Known about the structure:
Elements: E1 13-14, E2 17-18, H1 19-29, E3 35-39, H2 43-49, E4 55-59, H3 68-78, E5 84-87, H4 98-110, E6 114-119, E7 122-123, E8 127-130, H5 134-139, H6 145-150, E9 155-159, H7 172-184, H8 189-198, H9 203-220, H10 230-239, H11 249-260, H12 263-270, H13 285-294, E10 296-297, E11 300-301, H14 304-314, H15 319-341
Parallel strand pairs: 3-4, 6-9
Antiparallel strand pairs: 1-2, 5-8, 6-7, 6-8, 10-11
Amino acid sequence: MASRMGMCKPLLSLGEQPMIRVTAKRLLEGGAETLLVVTGNQSQAVQDVMQGLPVHFVHNDAYAETDMFASVCMGLRAVEESDSILITPADVPMFSPHLIGCLHEKMRNEGAQAVWPKVHGRNGHPLLLRADAVSAVLRYRGERGLKGALSQLHTAWCDTEDEGCLLDVDTAQDYRKIVAYREDSPPTEAEIRMLHDRFGSTPQIRAHCEAVENKCMELMRHMPDNLLDRALLSAAARLHDAARTRPHHAAVLAQALLEMGYGKTAEIVSTHMQLLPTQIGTLSEATVLYLADKLVQDTVPVTLEERFSNAARKYAGNAKACEAAAVRYQAAKSILDKIEEA
């Protein structure tokens, strides 16, 4: 009913998509083969926004009078044969798809029937339930809902630093927190591939992006730990030339990322061709990407001197282009010097 939020939470926008669709795509990216959504409030609208995904629906006619555990049980009864089942509310959209593999590994290693992700002592979502535990959950008649049902099972906890698995939406403040979390997060692997596909990125462009990512990670080894966000830099590097076939490709890609809600990644890729004056001589994800891009010619590592001597030959006789190349060289050199000082 979303009585505290005042609106249907699964339909709230997160970037360019409804929240429930973001949640669904992360489950699929993490390895889920099919999805089953238990609908209640605004069921038709929820079904409409899930078009194109491998989704089945079950409707809880009594959603206004029953609790979430009743909907969970309806879903479990409708699940087709499977080895394991992921369970999550629709309003937990920012867990990492990688987390799902960690949950499965924990289940295998400990022989557990149920596994929760845990961040500093707090349970998150999604929950992983072994298929042979479903009947025990459905038999539960206590007052503690899903937690009470799971108390009968061999339950394990998967420790993680993935704070996105804790974030749900009960209030407008919670919603703002999730939007801000997405702003600072990197896009997922599937989203990176989708952007390359969307802009018609060639195999050569993708190979270049991978080579630049490798160079970024190499540069990070010469810097203090935790100075930069490795995941953000990695995603930005793998994406930075995805729109290379378009005019003003850095700005085009940055705009696409902004529309998806990934503001920090958009900021990083937007200056990989030309730094802002305030960025020169500083260390950040954006400046390291800028430098790494200059240290890779196609897919081959080069020195700054090699890269810009090639540029000098290419632009011979064009004073304006040579001057611009010299400016880029000095900007890149200032970052390299800063790394060597770190």
